[in-house]
Give the backbone structure.
Amino acid sequence: MRALSSSEILALWERGVGLHPLDRGLTALRVADPSASEGVADWPVGRRNQALLELHASWFGPRLQGWTACPECGEKVEFEVDARQLAATAEAEPPDSVIVAEHAFRLPTSRDLAQVAVRRDVESAPFALLRRCRISGPENPEWTDELLEAVGESLASADPLSETRLALNCPACRREWDDALDIGRFVWAEVEARARRILWEVHALASAYGWSESETLAVGAARRAIYLEMVHA
């Protein structure tokens, strides 16, 4: 994936500001690979996450650094993940479907997640996803918690990158827990941070030299950094 110019980063950020988090990740993937177009919404979630990890490594580097709060004492707990190493854990050719208790289920996609995300009843969302992804099986099935758990385990095994969980340990109270890594939100946070930094550079240089935004962005990032040093000297 090619690196984006400053103006392209700003255009991507502006385009995604008002979108749902799911759509922001898909929008970034479409910008990174225009040939993928609308098809990315129908990729299995693991394939989408693998592509987002590769995108992060290409645009921002392989290190995913972040933090979360300990659920016990509120202490800030930092973590770091290598995007390339994590992307390599994806199955080379995941199966098209899994079989559980005579039911066949396809791998969930971003489109499926978007459909169940709008449900007000959070507890019913997993069952709604299960019904959407079922492609064959007995009529009028009984959707039990046990079936939901079995299907979830089978889908996770078939598509390991569909959900990434981090094992965390609090340095203050020693609480251990695991938490999900939302790769799409992580990538978008990087896009937003980069866009805000570029806008700050435009503001500072426009104020100092009277340049327009387009004139400022036409100056390469390395040269802009030198100009900023001189402005703040």
